[in-house]
Amino acid sequence: MNWMRQISSDKILVGLVAVIVVGMSFIYLGKGPVDPAQSMQAKSDQTNVPVTSTKIGMLEKELESKLQTNILMMTGVGKVQVSVSFMTGLRNEYARNNNVTKRTNKETDKTGGTRETTEITENNQVVMPSGSSQPVMVLEDRPEIAGVLVIAEGARDPKVREGIHSAVQTLLNIPSARITVVPMGEG
């Protein structure tokens, strides 16, 4: 009876090891291509995905920097931190070549009856300059600004705070409600 328990516990141990080995092989095989060229292609595909968000982020940083530079020149402001967030993304319109072709066909049968058919074909293609892979851009519209936060040392003074608020509103042409100016903390 004792030897049966030992055999069944050995079988359980072997079965458990086999399950672990099979599980590990599934994990290893599920990681993707082992070929370095395929692996590099997969990595480059992943890094190219957030191009739009990178452009938006760069645009936000550029705008923050310009605002900060202008606000720093104002009297009594002191240190400044500016944050800008966009409500929408970049919007681009491209030139299109629109062609509409209308063809009418009139048929008369043996009994004198007539049948008229009209075929309309529309072709709406983006204009690509010869030798270029980029389409012709007609309009590039900046994103709409959701809000601006300005943290400034001098914002404790109501006149300085109002001056900062007015400057941001004038520079960005946005409603007053989208701008917040607060004093910088001491910490």
Written overview of the protein:
The protein has 187 residues and is of the alpha+beta class. It is built from four helices and seven strands, in the order H-H-H-E-E-E-E-E-E-H-E. It has helices spanning 2-29, 36-48, 51-72, 158-172, and strands spanning 80-86, 91-94, 96-108, 114-126, 137-141, 145-152, 179-183. The chain has a three-stranded mixed sheet with strand order 1-6-7. Strands 2-5 form a two-stranded antiparallel sheet. Strands 3-4 form a two-stranded antiparallel sheet. Helix 4 links the parallel strand 6 (145-152) and strand 7. The relative contact order is 0.13.
Core attributes:
187 residues; alpha+beta; three-stranded mixed β-sheet; two-stranded antiparallel sheet; 4 helices; flat
Oligomer: single chain
The low-pLDDT segments are 35-52
Shape call? flat
**In this structure, how is the largest beta sheet organized?**
3 strands, mixed
Tally of DSSP helical segments: 4
Class inferred from helices and paired strands: alpha+beta
Summed over residues and divided by their number, the pLDDT gives a mean of 77
Helix content: 40-55%
End-to-end gap: 75 Å
- Beta-strand fraction estimate: 25-35%
Main sheet: strand order:
1-6-7
Using only C-alpha atoms, the radius of gyration works out to 34 Å
Count of individual beta strands = 7
H/E order of the elements?
HHHEEEEEEHE
